[in-house]
From TrEMBL:
Residues 50-122 form the FHA domain. One of its GO terms (biological process) is innate immune response. InterPro entries: FHA_dom, SMAD_FHA_dom_sf, TIFA. GO terms for cellular component: cytoplasm. Belongs to the TIFA family. This is TRAF-interacting protein with FHA domain-containing protein A. The keyword Nucleus does not apply.
Length: 195
């Protein structure tokens, strides 16, 4: 192979991780002040992408004292004969759990990152969408701030039932019970649905 065949060119389509962030207090605090919102950044595939509050050890920093110094890491990898760059997510926080599509990860545990993943820690919700590319040595990252929690858009909310007191109708995630197959309910009066 010649050198020109092994080096990435500007024409190579890079894999891109779209990282969409939400926190309930993001409008009143500058939590994302150190992130390159709305800009694509190139990242070397052989270095883990770390997110946390420590700007010395993390690739990207959240300005929030409740976030761990090193919260999570994304590791790029490829499989033999596989054309795609894939990723794992690893929890680097000793004090808190991290969930990926409702699967909890303890300290230093990691799992494969699906093409579309909802990551939660503390009050943060992060939707990561992987766009496939051909380049092997690097990938791009693009940060975006969301106005609403991504769990609402993806339907990954934890089901909650809230009785509506003025009509007596039972509502689950904002939908009337007639539209949702609830299954058996306990006989607690606060959760009873009346027809």
């Amino acid at each position: 192979m010649s050198v020109s065949q092994t080096m990435e060119t500007e024409e190579d389509l890079l894999t891109c991780l779209q990282i969409k962030l939400y926190h309930p207090q993001q409008n009143s605090k500058s939590l994302y002040g150190l992130l390159p919102l709305g800009k694509r950044s190139r990242h070397s595939a052989d270095d883990p992408l770390r997110l946390g509050r420590d700007s010395q050890t993390c690739t990207y920093t959240l300005v929030d004292p409740r976030v761990s110094r090193k919260q999570l890491a994304l590791h790029a990898y490829r499989t033999p004969q596989g054309p795609d760059m894939l990723f794992t997510v690893q929890n680097l926080s000793q004090r808190g759990r991290l969930s990926v599509n409702s699967s909890a990860l303890g300290y230093l545990e990691r799992m494969d990152l699906p093409n579309k993943a909802l990551i939660r820690f503390g009050e943060y919700e992060i939707l990561i969408i992987r766009e496939s590319g051909e380049a092997k040595g690097s990938f791009e990252v693009e940060f975006e701030m969301l106005a609403v929690p991504p769990s609402r858009e993806t339907g990954m909310c934890v089901p909650t039932m809230t009785p509506v007191t003025d009509t007596g109708a039972c509502v689950m995630n904002g939908l009337p019970s007639e539209l949702i197959a609830l299954g058996p309910l306990e006989t607690d009066e606060t959760l009873m649905c009346q027809s």
